[in-house]
Each structure stands twice: as C-alpha cells, then as structure tokens.
C-alpha cells in the first residue's frame, strides 16, 4: 500500500510540473512514453523517449535524437495560405545510411516519420 501512494504522488508531481511549464513557458512538456524508433533501412536507433502522435500512425516527436542529424544545408519553408504564415524546417537524415527519417522544425522539435517503433 505504501508503494501505491508513492507512485500516485510521483504522478501528481509530474502533472504539476506539466501545468507549470505550460503556464510559464507556453508549451506543455512532452510526456515520455518510452518509444524508441529505428531507421527502416539500416535499423540504427534514431531516438529514444519519443512521443507517439495521437492520430497519425508511425509519426513521433522528440526533443533529442541520437542516430540522425538535421541537414542544415537544405532549409525548407512551408507557407500556410490560410493564415499567411510560414515555418522553416530541415530534413532529418539517418547518420548511417542518410535516409530521410523526419524533420527538425523551427522550435527545435524533431518530427520522426518513416521509422520503425521498437516499444
């Protein structure tokens, strides 16, 4: 019974931290769900502690990657005609085989797609 209370307190603390970050930094902290993703071509691990997209299958986001790098020489701009805004992003490539496996956005969030989830 004592262990259950500790886990509940830890979950409460995490929720309070999320609320604080959202209120004071303007964005919610990404919840860790333990997903690790690999390159579909060479199976190198690309990132750990990814968050799975809520509705798009095999789409993940992460704040850190380890087996891939953004191609900073290939800056791309996406224009939203409806809002007249634009956003810069860079393709993310596997360090081993150079396959494009995602993108780095202008907020320094990695969006991974065309990847293999491991857990």
What's the total count of β strands?
9
State mean pLDDT (0 to 100 scale): 80
- Percent range for helical residues? 10-25%
Distance separating the two termini: 29 Å
User: How many separate helices?
Assistant: 1
What amount of the residues lies in strands? 35-45%
- Uncertain stretches: 1-7, 26-32
* Estimated radius of gyration: 17 Å
From N to C, what is the helix and strand string?
A: HEEEEEEEEE
Largest sheet, strands/sense/barrel: 9 strands, antiparallel
Give the overall silhouette.
globular
Going by helix content, strand content and strand pairing, the class is alpha+beta
Descriptive report:
The chain is an alpha+beta fold and 119 residues long. Helix content is 20%, strand content 37%. The protein is built from one helix and nine strands. It has one helix spanning 2-25; strands at 35-38, 45-52, 60-62, 68-70, 76-80, 85-94, 100-105, 110-112, 116-117. Strands 1, 2, 3, 4, 5, 6, 7, 8 and 9 form a nine-stranded antiparallel β-sheet that branches. Strand 1 (35-38) and strand 2 (45-52) form a beta hairpin. The longest helix is centred in the N-terminal third of the chain and has 24 residues, at 2-25. The chain starts with a helix and ends with a strand.
């Amino acid at each position: 019974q004592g262990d259950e209370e500790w886990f509940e307190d830890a979950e409460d603390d995490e929720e309070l931290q999320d609320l604080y970050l959202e209120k004071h930094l303007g964005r919610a902290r990404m919840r860790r769900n333990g997903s690790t993703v690999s390159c579909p071509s060479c199976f190198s691990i690309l990132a750990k502690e990814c968050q799975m997209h809520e509705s798009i299958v095999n789409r993940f986001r992460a704040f850190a990657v380890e087996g891939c790098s953004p191609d900073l020489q290939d800056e791309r701009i996406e224009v939203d005609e409806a809002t007249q805004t634009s956003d810069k992003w860079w393709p993310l490539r596997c360090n081993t085989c150079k396959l494009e496996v995602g993108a780095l956005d202008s907020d320094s969030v990695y969006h991974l797609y065309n990847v293999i989830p491991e857990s």
